[in-house]
Every structure is written in C-alpha cells, then in structure tokens.
Specification:
- The two termini are 14 Å apart.
- This protein has 234 residues and is of the alpha+beta class.
- Strands 1, 2, 3, 4, 5, 6, 7, 8, 9 and 10 form a ten-stranded mixed sheet that branches.
- The chain has two domains: 85 residues, Alpha-Beta Plaits, CATH 3.30.70.580; 128 residues, 2-Layer Sandwich (Alpha-Beta Plaits).
- Helix 1 packs across helix 2.
- A hairpin with a 2-residue loop joins strand 8 and strand 9.
- The protein is built from six helices and ten strands.
- It is globular.
C-alpha cells in the first residue's frame, strides 16, 4: 500500500492502545474488510504530527477480495486525513521497512505567518542565512554516527548513511530535503534544527564536525508539522 496522510490529528504512525494512530486506523479498517487480524508493517514510524505523501506498508491476508475493493473499502472506513493511493500484490518475503533502500523526507519552513501554511510549515521570525546552511551540507552527508542529532529509542546502531541534503529558498519559503538509507527518531528534525541554527549564527560552520565526535550537545529539534515522508525507494 502507498499511503498519504495528514499527521496533525494522529499520535504518529505506530499503533498505540487508546490513541489514534495511522497504523491503528488502517488495521481497524482492513480487519473489517477482510474479516481477519491484520498487522501492517510501515516503511517508517513517523512521529506525532509528521505527515506522509508516500508512506509504504505491507500486510498478509487470506482474503480473496479484489485489490480495488480493499483499497476503496479502506478509504471509505478511515478518516479523511488518511488515504490509500495505491495497492498491489508483492512477494511474500517483501518487507516495507527492512526492504527499503532509501527514504526521502522534505521539511517546509515559512518566513511569514500565513494561516494557510502554519499547519504544514515551521514559521521562523528571523530569516537564516541559507548560504551558510548550504555550506555545511558536505559535512552532514555520508555514513556517520547521528546519535547527537537524534533521540535514543533503545537503538544501539546509530550509524546512518545520509545520501543527500538540499536547502533551497523560494520567496518566503525554505525547503530542506534529506535522503538516507535509514533515520533515527527525530533525526531529520534534528538535522533541520541544526541547519537553521547554523543559518542564525548560533553555531559556526567550523563546529559541525564536533557534533559527531563530542558528547551530545543541546540542539533544537524542528517541530513536527513541517516534516513529510515523501518517497521510499526499494
């Protein structure tokens, strides 16, 4: 399944008892349609308030319903802030999470408090220097230990390979795109917050390497509403 959702009213992707989550909403709908217990495996566990344009999830079912019926039925049972864009049959061994080769996230920043943007952008009052933000990108790309840019969640492996980062300014918007093989909890938001602090002068460009080697430092995590899971590559 390829899924799009507005994360504003969800407590993240992962199922939580007595809380509305994307996984829980979809599993509940699929159970009604197929008549069996469904365990949905998502490519990424987006946090509360984070959105997706191309989340990928897989499940096993013994139902012989046509795929179109499953897709339409699911969309008819879930809220209007989640939508199954496509559904297809995959090999039994396919795993949305562990089979992913890369994920692309996009983060939106707005420099004006437009009421039409605030739900999906991070509004910042003081314009950062985008050229400084771009200057430090090479130091953040590659296979590195990103523990200091994330929140530990019982994961001992904190090494990730960031393939690419771009920072562009479009009028009163700044768009940051990050692609990598895997991401730790709040890692993209940590990278975005760090880049903005570089652009504001809180940290110098010469300090970047020290964030990988030194004990964890106090970084600002960008708020969730500006973050989108755009694409999962297989």
């Amino acid at each position: 399944m390829i899924i799009e959702y507005d994360g504003t009213r969800f407590f993240g992707w992962q199922y939580q008892p007595n809380r509305r989550t994307v996984q829980g909403e979809l599993q509940g709908a699929l159970k009604k349609i197929t008549g069996g217990e469904i365990k949905l495996t998502g490519a990424g566990r987006t946090d509360q308030g984070v959105h997706a344009l191309g989340q990928v999830a897989n499940f096993h079912t013994e139902s012989d319903l046509p795929l179109l019926s499953i897709r339409k039925g699911t969309n008819g049972l879930v809220g209007d802030d989640v939508y199954v864009k496509d559904i297809t049959v995959v090999p039994d061994e396919f795993n949305s999470r562990y089979g992913a080769k890369a994920k692309i996230y996009r983060y939106n920043i707005t420099l004006e408090p437009s009421p039409f943007r605030l739900r999906y952008y991070w509004f910042i009052k003081h314009t950062p220097d985008v050229s400084l933000m771009q200057k430090v990108i090479p130091a953040l790309v590659g296979r590195k230990d990103f523990e200091n840019f994330s929140v530990r969640n019982g994961n001992d492996n904190t090494v990730c390979d960031v393939h690419d980062i771009s920072v562009t300014r479009e009028d009163t918007r700044i768009v940051i795109t990050v692609e990598g093989d895997r991401f730790l909890r709040k890692m993209v938001r940590g990278i975005v917050g760090f880049l903005v602090d570089i652009g504001r002068g809180r940290f110098s460009t010469a300090e970047v390497d020290g964030f990988f080697d030194a004990p964890k430092r106090d970084i600002n995590y960008a708020p969730p509403q500006g973050l989108f899971l755009v694409t999962v590559k297989y």
